[in-house]
Design goal:
Elements lengths: L1 H6 E3 L3 H26 L5 H27 L1 E3 L3 H23 L4 H57 L1
Antiparallel strand pairs: 1-2
Helix pairs in contact: 2-3, 3-4, 4-5
Amino acid sequence: MELQAIIEKPIRGVHKWAWIGSTVLGIGFMLLFGTLAIIAAEISILGRLGFAAGAVFGLAWAIMGIEILRRGSINLKTHGPAAAGMGWGLTVIIATIALLTMGNEPRESLVGLRMCLAALIFLVMAAMFMIQSRIQQSELKTREKLLEIEYRLAELAESVGKD
């Protein structure tokens, strides 16, 4: 029971509204980027792939948000790393597309360079979220191990007390 309290964090009040908002945004991104990936004829195939990646990210985010809202809690072991991983994955995909966009023509190279610089900023932010997620996972594992040791000590004390 105590272990469950460490792993599961209930969402209430502002946190619940934040997850409702992010779920709606995920659905909106899925619809917007999915539509653009299909109908934007003047955009290159790389641009369409970027929009498709955004649509998949929006869908995944919406699914995770719906699951969290349905459960009424966040599983710190799975949801935190999943959110950080999705953000990192999308950012790497977009940065790769930006690198591939840099063509031989000067105008394309300039646009690609701007995209790469913007992608680099987002890569740094995504890396910070990944690091924060790793730190939280380490803290969670430490708390679990301490609780396990506490239970073992209680069992030992109980068995010594019976003798």
